Amino acid sequence: MTTLDLPDVTEDLRLLLEQAVFFDPWLGAITERDLDPRAEFALEEHVAAFLAQYWTVQEKARSLGILPIYGDIVHDVLRTAALSTSCMRGVYEGLPRVPDAEGIHRLFGELAQFADVHGVGPFVRAALSVLAYEDLLAIEYFGGVREDDFTTGRLHRPWVERPLDNELSVMLALGTCEIVLRDGVRFIQTTPRGRERLVDLSKALRDAGFLSRRVQALYIAHFDEQGADYDHIFDKLVPCVPERRRDFLEFCRIEPGSRVLEIGSGTGLFTVEAGLADRVGDAGIVYAMDPSPEMTMVAKRRVRKGGIRNVRFLFGRAEQVPFEDGSFDAVVGSLALHFTDARQALAEAHRLLVPGGHVSMFWSLPWDLKRVPAFAEWIAPLQRMMQHPKESGFTDRRFITMQEADELLHELGYVDVEVQQVGLPHELHHVEDTVRAILSLSVYQREFEQLPWAAREDLIRLLLARGEELVERHGKAAFSFLNSAAFLRARRSPDDALPVRQGHVVSFERMRRERISRETNA
Asked: Are 150 and 139 in contact (CB under 8 A)?
């Protein structure tokens, strides 16, 4: 690299994700706030030792050529990478997301192994590209920002402890932004080259799977923070759900003695309260799977309190389950499908079922906002955000319809497909709980998490104020309405033959999946 050309980092990002190394300023900040003093000391000690060993003059030249860089940026990059990697692994492996001193030691041992094989270049280039994406996105989103707002991180990284002057200097040297005067005040705005770079970075982050992985991690972190409070919020907003869960259990028609996988088991309301564990009986077993450790801890307490012995817990996502083909008589999910990639989740369920086994799902259907104009007025800012996606990666995620579910099930090879609509009354006049739910636990979460920090805070304040004003103006009844949900049930054809496995060769990826989603007893 002998010019100031900006590299394509797609392969660097993919390599890091394949090696379970992650860099994300937001995840790093979430983790850092709960770091204990011993872990903080260990982190600084390991960062200094790692840089002294690996960030040599030669490695700097190999990694960045003549691209400008400052030592404090690399220091902060490594620190953030360690914290966000710990958080990400905690999310996917069911371990504590905030490491202790021993966890820091183990993590840097793995980072050293990565550097021994690949060098530091992929790591540094990918991390600097993520920072550039965050910086350019914030500048472009606000149409330019005051220089002091940028250097303090107030609008996009308010947790930073040192000014971002050096990052700004690098961006100015690369020609991706410029300083202009507006009414006598210094502002930073993107240049045409900066806007092109933002498009390129957005594509690289999407293609490498970074953006989707980040949203999944932040999404699970939100569920962790909700914990048992999630049940309280949901019961207030959708009070009929306990009855619908029991209805769904009857719809599933699960036989005693069945081996059942429950995806998105959450706090165990369907597993325990609705009676799934009772239904399979002592001769059966329920594998309750959820990506959130905190929610799973609540479910474990429920199981222990009830003296239930036929439930086993594991961490994982519905799109990738660490069991062999044909492992289950039934795969079920109560209010979980709309939090997944429906196609991948149902395809994985088909693989996991024995021939003749069935999948059953209970999920919310798309809302018809025309029927609830007061609520539509309330969330109009969110609707505008989804209808006008940006190059930064905003996408329109929506609930799957009954027709789409029916077509998808047939396409995936299911037979005897049943799809049934059920009522799901909502009470959305509880303003604070409603805002928490629609931003943290709904289809809007992906778009919300990709806003710059200050824009997120502004949106929360706006929605809270609009909600209070509209509930007072229209009354609570205007926010009480009947939405719909759906039950589906379908079978894997009894004529299907399970694949014959040759030998006992197990891939590294499969071993890693099994480690990540290892089963833990109740």
From this structure: yes
